[in-house]
Specification:
This protein is an alpha+beta fold. The protein has helices at 3-30, 38-91, 312-315; strands at 106-109, 122-127, 135-139, 146-149, 168-172, 183-193, 196-202, 230-233, 235-242, 265-270, 273-278, 281-290, 318-328, 366-374.
């Protein structure tokens, strides 16, 4: 092959390469660009929207459950707090008082009407519950502004003289005197010298607004009845439930009472001062157990009877107090749907003691706590009394 032929072949190769390259350029220029169609966009948007709605729905559902569980947890806390105080004071009823006065340790009221369907019970207790004191009386006239104690009485306790000021005390006569009338008074100051001539001075008149159980308050006819008696710090406590927030005879903001229509509040009234203990309480009930027929056996729990009030001998046989506290959430549950099963009574008021139940669901969640307090000063021989 000569040089001329080689040149021709080279020209042909160049022409073929140029054609191939031009064809590639035309092909890349003329080929269509790929993207999303309208159908694909609509389908993707729909899927994304479904995911967002499902996520929001799950969040809203979880938030509703969290809100309901939060208010139920608060309700449980309130109910348990109220039960702690009532059961504690129930056990301490009569602490520091002579056994001869056991009929005055407690007093109940069954189903107090407040103008609404639910009628709660009340329980009044008395005792030297918080601080011990037992001072022997040397001489007291029953209506005087001062009381003479036996020498060295004050030295039995670590309280300084100023500690006694404004303290409420119960002055009891000698149990052997036959008189069962005690006086509630407020100490103004203490006077004594060299552990002798020890006296308590009182403000004129009795302490106002403090009414012991069983009608104990009064004055013995003979001043000699108080010789050999004693003086003790006293706490008269009453547990009760304000349903309406407008309890008759009480004024909002006076002595701790909230009022102003804020009901469902459990109160402790201590020496005339009202202390709110728990809110969102729907019902408060008490039952009592003791050897009421005096046959040596406990009779079983029953509600307070009207005939018991003032019967000091019968009340002294009460050994146990059963406490029912029913709480109801402030708001209806929002995390439930449909109607609750008819045999599931979480959303209606149950039957408690002799307080009637409700037949209608209102979607408010309830929490019922039940406990039994043994009146400690009366129950030391409980297990030797027979069957429980």
């Amino acid at each position: 092959m000569n040089s001329f032929e080689n040149k021709n072949i080279t020209r042909k190769d160049r022409k073929m390469k140029d054609k191939t390259s031009n064809l590639g350029r035309r092909s890349s220029v003329n080929s269509p660009k790929h993207g999303f169609t309208l159908v694909e966009l609509l389908l993707g948007s729909s899927i994304m929207l479904i995911i967002i709605v499902a996520t929001l729905s799950l969040y809203m559902r979880s938030n509703k459950v969290a809100v309901d569980q939060q208010q139920f947890a608060e309700l449980q806390h309130d109910v348990r707090s109220g039960m702690f105080f009532i059961s504690r004071d129930g056990r301490m009823a009569g602490a520091g008082l002579p056994i001869e006065y056991s009929g005055y340790f407690l007093e109940g009221i069954d189903n107090e009407l407040q103008g609404v369907i639910v009628a709660p019970d009340r329980l009044k207790l008395m005792g030297n519950i918080e601080e011990p004191l037992n001072l022997n009386i040397d001489n007291y006239q029953g209506a005087a502004a001062n009381l003479k104690l036996e020498d060295y009485s004050l030295e039995q306790y670590p309280y300084p003289d100023e500690y006694y000021e404004n303290k409420i005390v119960l002055i009891l006569p000698n149990p052997s005197s036959g008189c069962m009338s005690g006086q509630i008074r407020e100490i103004t100051h203490v006077t004594h010298s060299a552990m002798a001539n020890e006296r308590l001075n009182f403000s004129p008149g009795l302490a106002q607004g403090i009414n012991p159980p069983g009608g104990l308050s009064g004055t013995c006819s003979s001043s000699n009845d108080y010789d050999g008696g004693f003086v003790t710090f006293i706490e008269v406590k009453e547990y009760w439930l304000d349903i309406t927030g407008n309890y008759p005879g009480l004024s909002a903001g006076v002595n701790g009472y909230i009022g102003n229509g804020e009901g469902s509040v459990l109160y402790l009234t201590q020496n005339g001062i009202h202390y709110p203990l728990a809110k969102d309480i729907e019902n408060l009930q008490f039952q009592y157990n003791g050897d009421l027929d005096n046959d040596g056996n406990l009779d079983g729990f029953i509600d307070w009877q009207v005939s018991w009030t003032g019967d000091i001998d019968l009340i002294s046989r009460i050994r146990q107090v059963r406490i029912f506290i029913l709480g109801k959430t402030q708001n209806a549950y929002v995390s439930i749907s449909g109607s609750p099963p008819p045999n599931l009574h979480l959303y209606r008021r149950p039957l408690i003691a002799n307080s009637p139940k409700s037949d209608q669901d209102d979607k408010h969640r309830r929490f019922l706590l039940v406990s039994t307090a043994m009146v400690r000063n009366l129950s030391l021989n409980l297990y030797n009394m027979g069957t429980r």
